[in-house]
Amino acid sequence: MFINSLSSDNLQQTIIRHPLIVNSEILLPDVIALINEEQGNCHGLPNKNSNYLTNSSRDIDSTASQAASCALVMKNSQLVGILTQRDLIKLTAQGKNLEGISVSQVMTRELITLKLKDFKDVFTALHLLRQHRICHLPIVGEQGELIGLVTPTSLLTVSILQAELYNYTRVKLLERQKIEAELRLERNFVSAVLNLADALVIVLDSQGRIIRFNHTCEQATGYAFDEIKGRFVWDVLLLPETTACIKDIFQNLATKEFPQRYETSLVTKDGNRCLISWSNKVLLNRDNQVEYIVCTGIDITESRKAQEELQQTRNFLQSMINNLPVAVFVKDAKPENFGKFKLWNHTCENIFGITAEQAIGKTGYEFFPKEQADFFYQKDLETFASGLPQDISEEPIDSHNVGRRILHTTKIPLYDKDQQPEYLLCISEDITKYKRAEKNLQQAKEQLQTVLDAVPGFVSWVNNDGYYLGVNRHLAESFNLTTDAFVGQELGFMENSPQFTEFMQEFLDAGV
Length: 512
Fold this sequence. Notes:
This protein is of the alpha+beta class. Helices cover 42% and strands 23% of the residues. The chain contains 20 helices and 18 strands. α4 packs antiparallel against α8 and α8 (152-172) runs antiparallel to α9. It is elongated and about 135 Å long.
């Protein structure tokens, strides 16, 4: 039987030995980036000149890497959870903001695993995958240590390798009936794996006709296999603008490499479009000619939409921060990078004369005099020591490019989920002009007071509401008071001259 012909070595080849592993504290956007990077780092599958059997181990690892759509979560060298691409898509579809959410908050903790010693045949793994409706089955050792990962895609690859093995065996052996029986069983096995795979799998002949079409493809496109069997793929599933390119590839397969990885839009039966990331494997016949192309695809419509929306949100926030009329900058608060700038908006560039490119990753010691940098550093420490926002009403800044500035700065401590310092948010307003105007106003007041004090008579000035704005020295001394004692007081507050008070009030009411 075909299943029994899967040797221990072949079973071992179905195990992805280097799956994506993350810790439980990593944030979801970072996991998405790692999954995309893992899928993007695939170096391709063997071309038509490859020795299929001798390179089988490398081919399986490559195919498994292409199908990577999950992250295994490890803590203290133990497997504690799993997060799949399907989980991420569901979270996005639910409208959840992935920013700030860690893997530990959403990962699946109740794991289905298979011990290596119990991995006797592929049906053991297939049964667990189907029974629990999962697509990623961790393989563990006797002590629970992680060995690797089995997926429908990795099992599919072994079955395809076995197909090549039996084609080779059929040529060498004369036992035609036995080989045909084994091939029928193999086709049934491949069909079972194809329909179990949580990916679109289309098998094309060398002319571009559809000869296999799994259940996932039927669900995604709305076509039953019988509707499109034998039809050219570009006549059914592809957009008109891509048809010419795909036709040209098939017409020149002998001289051109078939694309190993690409993205294209798939047209469904009802006319909708979905974006698919394809990975292709070329199968050769005994004459080293292309016989089949196995196309494995993942629907990335929702994940790409989520990525675009996330990027739009980031761009919006960055644009909003850059256009604020106050300087906004963020410092790293982790001990190893304390004080290094992480964010620097456009107003910072204008106030400090330092571009974001120059500031990011640097500290204040690299731009400001040491005594000022020491002051900033001390205030940063005080902010985290108190755990509360700190308001610095006047903060002098000396820049090589723009000279001295007076800032009104607020420092706000930010903590991670473990309440450890993570960032320091700083908001600074340039009050240099205000302080200069305040100083000029005070000087003008002093000069005016000097002039009025020189007048021999009594001089006072009041506002329209009948309150003193000021008096000269002679008037103040006549009441044995200082000039400041009158400021803000209502006319007649001394109650020494009610007639004068009444006269002034009538004068003001008349608007003269």
